[in-house]
């Protein structure tokens, strides 16, 4: 193994649930560790709670120090589409995370590369805070639609405007910055971009091109940036489909943590079977480094 990919919500050890699982197959010697890092909403609200902050700092320090000391490369892969990478990283740094923009793989920059390569001019249905990521993209006379987690911007008027742009194109192109069904915040579960993506697909009889997790291209982009083949990488995530399933489809191994979006029914998923289950990120690292 050469690298590890980690998901952001994993950083905070929520409630304990059962014992650490074991990898079903021997892990090849690691060289890279990629993590999907999505900041848990509970942490976003807790910066004034010293106990939680200390827990995050201690866990983050332990995890990152051990991974780097082992010689593995580390990548934080996020489907965050409500903020630029700079703002996202600044938020994490404010909570004590040792992380830089260069270590983060996110959907918006990947979408910008795709738009430039294909000469596409997007109509944006995204969160206001994400718009700076598209500053260098020509948005005049749109010939495609880009949809992200727009939150309150998912009004009828805004979704309908995106529909009108698509339906008016001879060859409609819909690019989605993810296809998650829902995510969890402190006040409960909320619809994610995937629900609105599906509505536009249905209305316009078009299939969206997904550039965020679980798209194969998203993971391949992270691996290419580190120069590591999928067989030498392992993903740690809390989302059975987007993290675990997406990584495995790319040829990587994947570990699911019983925190964040994890639900007990995930362990009976009909298609996706993680290579291991663990209680939290620290235990995932214990399992991985124990097999080096």
Automatic annotation (TrEMBL):
It is found in: Cytoplasm; Nucleus. It catalyses: diphosphate + H2O = 2 phosphate + H(+). It is an enzyme of class 3 (hydrolase). This is Phospholysine phosphohistidine inorganic pyrophosphate phosphatase. The keyword Amino-acid biosynthesis does not apply. Keywords: Cytoplasm, Hydrolase, Magnesium, Metal-binding, Nucleus. The lineage of its organism: Eukaryota, Metazoa, Chordata, Craniata, Vertebrata. InterPro entries: HAD-like_sf, HAD-SF_hydro_IIA, HAD_sf, LHPP/HDHD2. One of its GO terms (cellular component) is nucleus. Belongs to the HAD-like hydrolase superfamily. Its cofactor is Mg(2+). The keyword Hydrolase applies. Its main location: cytoplasm. NCBIfam families: HAD-SF-IIA-hyp3.
